[in-house]
Amino acid sequence: MSVSSAMDRRAASRRLRALGAILLGLAGFLLTWQLIVWVGGYPEFILPGPLAVLERFGSAWLDGTLVEHTVTTLLEVLLGFAVGATAGVLIGGTLARSERISLVFSPYLVAAQSTPILALAPLLALWFGTGLVSKVIICALIVFFPVAVSTTVGLRGVDRRLVELGRSLRATRRQLFRVIEVPAALPSILGGMRVGVTLAVVGAVIGEWAGAEAGLGWLLNLARGSSFDTPLLFATLLTIALLGVVLYGLMTWLEHRLVGARA
Amino acid sequence: MTTLATGTADEAARPTTGAGSVPALRIERVRVAFGPRTDRLVALDGVDLTVGHREVVALIGPNGCGKSTLLRVAGGLLAPEAGTVELGGRPVHGPDAAAGFVFQEPRLLPWRDTLDNVALPLELAGLGRAERRARATELLSLVGLERAGALRPHELSGGMRQRAAIARALALEPEVLLLDEPFSALDALTRERFNVELLKLWARTATTIVLVTHSIREALFLADRVLVMSPHPGRVIAEVASPLSRPRLARDLEDPAIAGAAIEIRHHLGWSGEEGDRPSELTTDEAVVAHPREGPTP
Question: What's the gap in Å between the CA of B98 and the closest CA on chain A?
Fold first, then answer.
């Protein structure tokens, strides 16, 4: 009991020290930033200091600007992620099962992935309008590839011995898939989704940039272009970054919950 | 459930190999080959094997002699090119409920706890959750793992994992238990204990056992008959009866009668310097027979 509580105390103090290091790093970063602004004497519309950005960040959240646009972007990200990840798992699963299908379709997938989404975004806005749909498509496209690849890799890597065990227990094809293959591939699939969710944020912002009426990407354009509100631009970037971090954290948490207890 | 705990020590002492009854496993003129048509590797050719109800048969031989292949054919995991396979008198087409496999590795699903691993065959067979958990709990206590149900495979020792694998193989009450070098990953002491425990388990259940092993002593201790196989192509070249009577106890591992039978098996394996001789693959046992590599080198 006393040994374990001593170990707990030691672990707690280690965590505390780690937190201290992180905060120290952050303070150093902000201080350097502020120093550059002071030494260079830059006006606020070129490079605002961290204080100015934080102030603008606070006011934009309080007056509802960032709330509104964050909700818009978050909705696009979540819907696009859901569509793209589902398609990625389904198509990745199909590719894993058949070498021939994989041979025929893989080049298209890779080619599609290599096409810059930046070039497609205006076209999608033209076809599907400046609303939710075009952003969801962009997000889905960008999420699709890493999820499809990680699904294929995960399913191909399933231990054949476990599959043989399933066969020896007279599992049907469906049961094998559901009870053995999918759970075995899950860490890989979730890893792809973790990459995908951060890319989805980028996709939504690019989509909004190319044509939108709301969202954080649209706000970036507004702050940069028409109002020269550079502190707002930085505050928006900060929000986008935080959104990515939070979503990534959620995926990591989910991954830990689902597959954390394996050896 | 009926097949569990029905066997008594007396029954255990007398496997039924009578000609009148239907054998638990019958394999006739089985041929298995792998690879492209132009370059066939014949893994098994003209193999016959008949195992009586509650009999224990060990397959022994060097790597590549088709022991594991024969086991897979027996359980329906591998369809032979020619020949017939019957379990309990019924022809085998594909994986069969009458066969329970224990592989060299425990093959537990790492994302499931031990109870759910043991319940897996019942789940695949469509049993309800409550029923299969109750049954799996029973199976766990049968192999002495009653307290490990909630643990994940990585929290178990190697021996506990293999126990769980055995419990899982017994879940569907198979007519024949097929063991593919089940204890080869265990240390020597644990392995001896497992041999004794396997016989106890066998005495308590109504199952027939066919096991593949690399250990001559293990084969003679566990089995009624030891079938010696040779490679290229895989064939059964000899049959040696175990000199031990049942029930067998741990001290029977040191029975001098084993030594004589072991010498006979080694003779059939051809370790005395013939071509294709690969004695190092077999577990040699200093206590029973001197190391086969000793002697003049060619």
Answer: 10
Contact A115, A98 (CB under 8 A): no
Distance from C-alpha of B209 to C-alpha of B269, rounded to nearest angstrom: 23
Q: Which among A162, A168, A259 has the least Cβ separation from residue B101?
A: A168
Question: In this structure, is the dihedral angle defined by the CA atoms of residues B232, B236, B237 and B243, taken in order, positive or negative?
Answer: positive
Do you know the residue count of chain A? 263
Q: With beta carbons less than 8 A apart as the criterion, state whether B233 and B189 touch.
A: no
Which residue of chain B has the CA closest to A182? Answer: B111
- What is the pairing mode between strands B225-230 and B235-241? antiparallel
pLDDT digits (tens, 9 = 90+) for B175-234: 999 999 988 888 888 888 899 989 998 988 889 999 999 999 999 999 999 999 988 888
Provide, as residue numbers in chain A, all residues whose Cβ is less than 8 Å from the Cβ of B95.
Answer: 167-170
- Interface confidence (ipTM) of the complex: 0.81
- Interatomic CA distance for residues B25 and B241, integer angstroms: 18
CB–CB contact B109 A168 (8 Å)? no
| Nearest Cβ partner for A183 among B101, B111, B152 | B111
Q: Minimal CA–CA distance to B67: which of B223, B177, B185, B227? A: B227
List all residues of chain A from 34 to 63 with a beta carbon under 8 Å from chain B: none
Q: Is A173 an interface residue toward B (CB < 8 Å)?
A: no
Percent of chain B with pLDDT over 70: 84
Q: H/E/C letters for each residue in chain B?
A: CCCCCCCCHHHHHCCECCCCCCCCEEEEEEEEEECCHHHCEEEEEEEEEEECECCEEEEECCCCCCHHHHHHHHHCCCCCCEEEEEECCEECCCCCCCEEEECCCCCCCCCCCHHHHHCHHHHHCCCCHHHHHHHHHHHHHHCCCCCCCCCCHHHCCHHHHHHHHHHHHHCCCCCEEEEECCCCCCCHHHHHHHHHHHHHHHHHCCCEEEEEECEHHHHHHHCCEEEEEECCCCEEEEEEECCCCCCCCHHHHHCHHHHHHHHHHHHHHCCCCCCCCCHHHCECCCCCCCCCCCCCCC
Q: Is A169 on the interface with B (CB under 8 A)?
A: yes
**pLDDT score of B279 more than 80:** no
Chain B residues whose C-beta sits inside 8 Å of any chain A C-beta: 75, 77, 94-97, 99, 101, 103, 105, 107, 109-111, 120-121, 123-125, 152-154, 172
CB contact under 8 A, A165 and B96: no
Output the CA angle A17-A20-A22, nearest 5 degrees: 115
pTM: 0.77
| Cβ pair A161:B109 closer than 8 A | no
For chains A and B, CB pairs below 8 A equal 53
- Are the C-beta atoms of residues B96 and B24 closer than 8 Å to each other? no
Neighbours of A195 (CB within 10 A): 17
Which has more confidence, A138 or B277?
Answer: A138
Q: Is A256 in CB contact (< 8 Å) with chain B?
A: no
Could B121 and A165 be called an inter-chain contact, meaning their C-beta atoms sit closer than 8 Å? Answer: no
Rounded Cα distance, A63 and B148, in Å: 57
